[in-house]
Design brief:
GMP Synthetase, Chain A, domain 3, 173 residues, three-stranded mixed beta sheet, 5 helices, elongated
């Protein structure tokens, strides 16, 4: 049985909310137009006034700019609708179905790097499947990047296929 991967919300989900709000505003505009046309209100129709303002033989610059912006926005919405949602977790190797968040991988890697000999402090940053470890070494310590890589690699062994890079800097005396 294939288990579905945990994923983030699709890129188009907030666009759906925006589209719903625009449709709601359009419905309010049509309701005001209907109320003005039926004589239920003394105000003139907003829709009628907007269409009268657009009644021009030559398109003005702002109408052209608005049209170009609408086309570009529509293309962006179309691309966002077809983009798949990004993975939110990493699959851990092994017989079970275990998924790990990138924040958990960062925490485990930082702890492993800080336990390496000569390391005073370690910070980690994960982007996609790349983990960057920044280590602050004790002054005059013999700690090497290889020790930190070995410590982090041992700890993350079966969690996920991750590319690890280490930046080590010796602290001031």
């Amino acid at each position: 049985m294939k288990v579905r991967e945990p994923r983030r919300s699709p890129a188009a989900s907030w666009l759906a909310v925006l589209g719903a709000l625009l449709l709601l505003a359009f419905a309010a505009l049509l309701a005001q137009h209907a109320a003005a046309a039926r004589g239920w209100t003394s105000a003139s129709s907003w829709l009628g006034e907007a269409l009268a303002a657009l009644d021009d033989r030559e398109p003005s610059t702002w109408v052209l700019a608005g049209g170009v912006a609408a086309v570009l926005l529509g293309l962006w919405f179309l691309v966002a609708a077809f983009l798949p949602a990004r993975r939110s977790h990493l699959h851990a190797e092994g017989p079970g179905d275990l998924w790990v968040t990138p924040a958990a991988v960062e925490a485990v890697a930082a702890d492993a790097a800080e336990r390496a000999p000569g390391v005073l402090h370690a910070a980690t940053e994960m982007r996609r499947r790349r983990l960057r470890v920044k280590a602050l070494l004790a002054p005059g310590s013999e700690a090497a990047v290889a020790d930190i890589l070995e410590s982090v690699g041992t700890r993350l062994g079966s969690l996920a296929e991750i590319e690890v890079s280490v930046q080590a800097k010796e602290g001031a005396r």
